Every structure is written in C-alpha cells, then in structure tokens.
C-alpha cells in the first residue's frame, strides 16, 4: 500500500473532495487526521473510515483560527510522533456577483479562507517537515485559478490563482529539505456546495456550462482524489511546484 505507516492531515474532510481524499488515503494504508468545521458530518466520515480502515484522528474547528491550526499540528505529533502529508483542501466561495457589488469584507473573507489560511498551514507544518527532512504538501486550487470560475466570482478566482503562485514559491523554498509542494486544480465538481448551487440553475444554464467541458460532465470528488493522492505519494517524489489540472479538459496548459 502506497501510504502504509504515513500520517496524513486533510482539511475540509467532512464532505466532497476532502472526504474522497481521506477515504482513498486510508484505503491505501494511511492513518488520516480529519479536520472540518461541521462536527456531525466530520464524525460521520470518521466513523465510515473507521469501519473500513484504520480509525482516524478527528480535530474539529475552523482552520482560519490559530487555535485550530495549533491543535491540528500538535495532536498528530503527540499521538503519532510525525506528520508526513498535509492536504490543504478547506476553502469556499460564494455565488458570482457583479463586480461592483463585491464588498471588501466579502473579498477579504474569501482571500482569508482560500489563501491566507493555507499560507498559515504551510508555514506551520513546514517547521515539522524541515525537522523530519520529509514532507508532502498538496494544495487544492481550482480551474478558477487557471482560467476563470464557472460558478463563483472574481474574488474566488483571485484566491485560487494566488494559491498556485504561492505553491510554486514554497516549492522552491522547501525543496532542499525534501519537502514537495504541489497543487491540484479541479474543475466544477459536484461537491455538496456545488450541487446545491447547480440545482438553482435552469436546465439551459446547466447545459451552457456542460458545453464548455470537453468530457461533457461535471467532475465527481472521486475524480479529484487520485490526483491528490498521487502528489502525496512517493511516486511523485521528483515533482514539486506542479499543477495538475483535473477539469474534464476545460483548461489545457
């Protein structure tokens, strides 16, 4: 198994891409550390993984809060003695608004949730990885950061583009310590949040979006998780600063 004896932290693990990634890593031998804000959903994911694989460590809380981040680093170290993999999946975005209607409060909230919080996570875990001389960081960006968002606004696109730039810079900074930093950029994926937004669109609007996707469908969380797992594995030990686009062909770099 690719992740036998590996300790993997996954943020935003209560549903969608985070849940699919945590389940895949656990299936392949990892002990997973699950974080999210929604306690009931998070506990349900943990119970499902425990039934089928190894019992996970659950650390509920908002990753934008310093106390949550401190616990998310310290508790795995106390219990397992190390962290090997860190998946920055938590984030969010609001439905697109006209440019002139986006307030600075909304702008700052999206940038904090999708970019600043990821920076703080990387900064914190990099200290651990440097001591170990080993670590894998995988950031979850978006098609919105490569091209434009199909369902969210300019604030979301800016935050996800910033995440790609930060990934490349961190990859260069941390490479000498045997730490890789990479990004997966999913297209529109039927997570719980996107499914709710999708249901509000007319059939015509839905078809217009589908027509922009060469493979002719929205993604599923299970389409994205294998790319994240690959970058977190030792199979990708010579890859850093990369972006893997998993978007049905919407963006071809």
Automatic annotation (TrEMBL):
One of its GO terms (biological process) is monocarboxylic acid metabolic process. PROSITE patterns: ADH_SHORT. Transmembrane segments: none annotated. Keywords: Oxidoreductase. The keyword Heme does not apply. Pfam families: adh_short_C2. SUPFAM superfamilies: NAD(P)-binding Rossmann-fold domains. InterPro entries: NAD(P)-bd_dom_sf (IPR036291), Sc_DH/Rdtase_CS (IPR020904), SDR (IPR050259), SDR_fam (IPR002347). Belongs to the short-chain dehydrogenases/reductases (SDR) family. This is Oxidoreductase, short chain dehydrogenase/reductase family. It comes from Coleofasciculus chthonoplastes PCC 7420.
